[in-house]
Amino acid sequence: MPDSLRLTGLTKRYGQGRPVIADLNHVFEPGTATGLIGPNGSGKTTLLRLLSAVAYPTSGHVHYGDVDIHAQPHAYLRRVGQVYANAELPEHLTAVELLEWILREREEWSDQATSRIEGLLDKVLLDERRHNLIGTYSSGMIQKTQLAAAFVARPDILLLDEPFRGLDTEATAAALELVQQVPRVGGLIIIASHTRALLDQFCDDYMDLTESSQAR
After folding, report:
1. Residue 22: helix, strand or coil by DSSP?
2. In this predicted model, what pLDDT tens digit does every residue of 69-87 receive, in sequence order?
3. Residue 148 domain boundaries
4. Which residue, of 45, 85, 204, 214, has the greatest Cβ tally within 10 A?
5. Residue 78's closest CA among 26, 144, 4, 2?
């Protein structure tokens, strides 16, 4: 069963500078989609990096259920799907191979895995070039691959940083349809996007990080 994601006194400072995020307390509940809003520099990407255990807090904690995500990142990240604003995917793999690696690493490979991969790549509208090396992909193809990689293991949490960037109208609609389904089945989404009109279609809450960043 999905758990809540709980932030307690979360603070992030780089070097001796002012905190990017200061004493943030919040609970993200299963079955919800929260949009992160605020101007550039308010800490949206920093918060997503903290929640993906890529960055460590200066102080405070993040718990998923009983798990401290920075003390036990592997146990936590098995439940997480992610889309980064500036992705660095393995160029020596194809999209199909990348998704296969994710399923095998999470011990979710089965007889149905191949059809799951192909079906998901169909949904994000990645064409037959899914069998080409990622190093040859356009920015739009990389974004589609990221989306498929985020969804393939059916995560309980989705952390999305500008997931619609680089997508044309048709691909954006396809991605939006995938994202909208997650809260309906009890999943938890935290998303940063400059396209507020898209967020309004599925977000039931917003976190304005301007106040936290101004608490510096």
Report:
1. strand
2. 999 999 999 999 999 988 8
3. 32-54+82-214
4. 45
5. 2
* Structural domain includes residue 185: yes
Residue 91, in any domain of the structure: yes
Left, alpha or beta for 101 (phi > 0: left; psi -120 to 50: alpha)? alpha
Q: pTM for the complete prediction?
A: 0.92
Supply angle C-alpha 45, 107, 156, rounded to 5.
Answer: 40
Over the stretch 13-54, which tens digit does the pLDDT of each residue have? Answer: 988 888 999 999 999 999 999 999 988 888 999 999 999 999
Residue 84 CA to residue 87 CA, distance in Å, equals 5
3-state helix, strand, coil in the chain (%, to 5): 35, 25, 40
CATH of the domain at 97: 3.40.50.300
The count of domains in the chain is: 1
> For residue 110, is it within any domain?
yes
Would you say residue 67 lies in a domain? no
Q: What is the pLDDT of residues 168-190, one digit of tens each?
A: 999 999 999 999 999 999 999 99
Q: Which residue has the tokens 């977000």?
A: 203
Beta-strand runs (E) in 29-102: 33-37, 59-64, 67-68, 80-83
Give the whole-angstrom CA distance, residue 214 versus residue 19: 9
